[in-house]
Amino acid sequence: MKLTADPVGRWLEPSGPESDVVVSTRVRLARNLADVPFAAKAGPADQERVVSSLRWALQEIGCLEQGRFFDDEQLAEPRGSCLLERHLVSPDFLSTKARRGLYVGEDEAVSLMINEEDHVRFQVLASGLDFAEAFGRAAVLDEKLESQLAYAFSPEFGFLTACPTNLGTALRASVMVHLPALVMTREIEKVLRGALHIGLAVRGLFGEGTETRGNYFQISNQRTLGQSESEIIETVTEVCRQLIEYERKAREYLMRNLRTEVEDKVFRSLAILKGARILTSSEATNLLATVRLGIVLGLINEVTLAEVNRLTVLVRPANLQVVLAATLDGAERDERRATLVRETLVRLRS
């Protein structure tokens, strides 16, 4: 099976702090241009102006030499969904009928959406729990863009955004965490209620309005007005560290009291992945997530955490078609997905 050279973001490498629990950290900033109507009121000419202005600014600050710019026509399927599955764009960005543009850095750690809900939303992803890296890079990009563009800003309300909940810093700080032990010990609802109680949001694998798969959860702030960037990040970090502690204690409990059951679940999942001839996207994600747990518990050493993270992305429907350079129906995807996983696991053992 031949794959294209389409890379998977380096932020998926488990090199960051606490990467056994925290897959990634994300910082997203929303901005609007001062002299253009907001997206809801912008006409085609306004939308084109925003795209042109942002593309020009990216060129001026040297970003286009370090990544790729996608025009509207280059975001057709399956490429658009592929980018969503890689956490580089939002569902709203794909569904909007506005004139769009997208910038993606060469390492896929940086992406910038043009004409989503706001004129521009850009994000930085980092491996593990690393807000210093993610926010540091986002702040540098923000300063460079502001040197070329005039932002909509109010001394009273801060950065002006389409949605009032984003006023102020317009910063969304989030972490993607893997909490299989808390799910297995049935503690997950109680733990996540604590995050909701202090005003954080808990979302599925691909953000707002998406389902949870593989026991992956996104935790983020909801309020931006009246809080500084450091306060937002500190709150999310504190809750994340609590989740890490709870998840690790749950893993210890499982290995101490239910080791045989855990081993059976882990090795059964690995065996299915090695032998299956048909795998749906959901099934593959859940099985790989269980194998991931087996790796961090020290039960499996023939597969690396980095490879499981990579496969978790490549088995998704659009990514599968992009990396195989083939248009596939549902049945064909399920067969080719199983082949990809089997061949990858065989290669890792050899």
TrEMBL record:
EC numbers, comma separated: 2.7.14.1
InterPro entries per UniProt: Arg_Kinase (IPR023660), ATP-guanido_PTrfase (IPR000749), ATP-guanido_PTrfase_AS (IPR022415), ATP-guanido_PTrfase_cat (IPR022414), Gln_synth/guanido_kin_cat_dom (IPR014746)
Keyword match Ion transport: no
Coiled-coil residues: none
SUPFAM superfamilies registered for this protein in UniProt: Glutamine synthetase/guanido kinase
Protein name: Protein arginine kinase
Top-rank EC class of the record's enzyme: transferase
GO molecular function, one term: creatine kinase activity
Record-listed ATP binding positions: 24-28, 87, 121, 172-176, 203-208
Similarity comment: Belongs to the ATP:guanido phosphotransferase family.
UniProt keyword annotations, A-Z: ATP-binding, Kinase, Nucleotide-binding, Transferase
Domain of life: Bacteria
Organism: candidate division WOR-3 bacterium
A GO term from the CC aspect: extracellular space
Domain spans labelled Phosphagen kinase C-terminal: 21-250
One BP annotation, GO: phosphocreatine biosynthetic process
